[in-house]
């Protein structure tokens, strides 16, 4: 990467993170030692949840959470089409099917009105979802109280996909406290808010779910004699209780997490300050900016803008290409999942989720990460405004 290139997101690694890794490398345990449980305790505490289970990535977190809620062939999971593919694939891994609920254009989050309407139709047809996965797009929580109220009425479970939202708040409670859900899933991939290299976690207040997810991440194995079906035959004895995976987070990864989570509030504060500054610099530009829900404090994983093709005379694709040429690592979040060939093969069609499609057609994600300088930010804004003015 050339020095002047500004990526859309990147990790921040401090000397203390490096020291934490070296300490684990010199210890007795590279995996299954004391550092992963320490990271889990720090995360649970930070989120205000009773339990946190760390896994190899958020995809594994979604998968194990679905199995722990007994998602199986014949069941249906609903999520947003405006997300990364993992939010939907977790259902398919379980042999269940997936369906989508359209978004609100102003936030990119699952529309509660669309969800309510689709639930009523599904109720009449007798095909209600078992699990709904709201995705906190860009780091701003969905309206969880409203979704929770619908879950009580229609009897589905809720897994929050908070891959973008660690460190965010909804109604004065941290995202991940599961006040309005059964479980919350986080990603610690390097582009996200805090990183462990690769990594993920599930938070929950349900001891049964936490224990089952912990078992599933390690081959479905049990070492507690009290839980065994057969009698323990000695200290070596363990039981495979069910089909599981190796979805563990190593202690090397957890060491980075323990160190990074100490700076979570700082990261979110600096992302918020940068997002506020983008809002000020882009006000009146004709670009549409994300609506800020006053019930939320976003973690600001992403800063997407809605390109205004009519006002600028430049297509989104042209604007995107010219930003890239200027050395700015813009991205697009997201290509709606139902338009991907694999999902077309499953029967989804263009036009089914019009807001997700409109959002996709105009969206450009501009750089936002802790450590983005004001000079870099000015360059990003300057390039955007230059294009708008040139054609006006
Ligand atoms: C990144 C991401 C995931 C997957 O995270 P991994 O840790 O890479 O598996 C899932 N959902 C959303 C919304 C994401 O952005």
The neighbouring-strand order within the major sheet is 1-9-8-5-4-2-3
Low-pLDDT sequence parts: none
What's the helical proportion of residues?
Answer: 25-40%
The general outline is: globular
Task: Give the SSE order as H and E letters.
Answer: HHEHEHEHEHEEEEEHEEHHEEEHHHHEH
> Which small molecules are bound?
pyridoxal-5'-phosphate
Helix and strand topology:
Elements: H1 15-25, H2 35-47, E1 51-55, H3 58-68, E2 76-79, H4 86-93, E3 97-100, H5 112-125, E4 131-133, H6 144-154, E5 157-161, E6 169-170, E7 173-174, E8 183-187, E9 200-204, H7 207-216, E10 221-222, E11 239-240, H8 251-261, H9 264-282, E12 288-289, E13 296-297, E14 303-306, H10 309-312, H11 316-325, H12 341-345, H13 354-362, E15 363-366, H14 374-391
Parallel strand pairs: 2-3, 2-4, 4-5, 5-8
Antiparallel strand pairs: 1-9, 6-7, 6-13, 8-9, 10-11, 12-14, 14-15
The structure holds pyridoxal-5'-phosphate.
Characterise the protein shown here:
Helix content is 39%, strand content 13%. It is built from 14 helices and 15 strands. A 7-stranded mixed β-sheet has the order 1-9-8-5-4-2-3, sandwiched between helices. Strands 7-6-13 form a 3-stranded antiparallel β-sheet, with no helix packed on it. The chain has a 3-stranded antiparallel β-sheet with strand order 12-14-15. Strand 4, helix 6 and strand 5 form a beta-alpha-beta unit. Helix 3 packs across helix 7. The protein is globular, with a radius of gyration of 22 Å. Bound molecules: pyridoxal-5'-phosphate. The site of pyridoxal-5'-phosphate has 14 residues, from helix 3 and helix 4. The site of pyridoxal-5'-phosphate (PLP) has 14 residues, from helix 3 and helix 4.
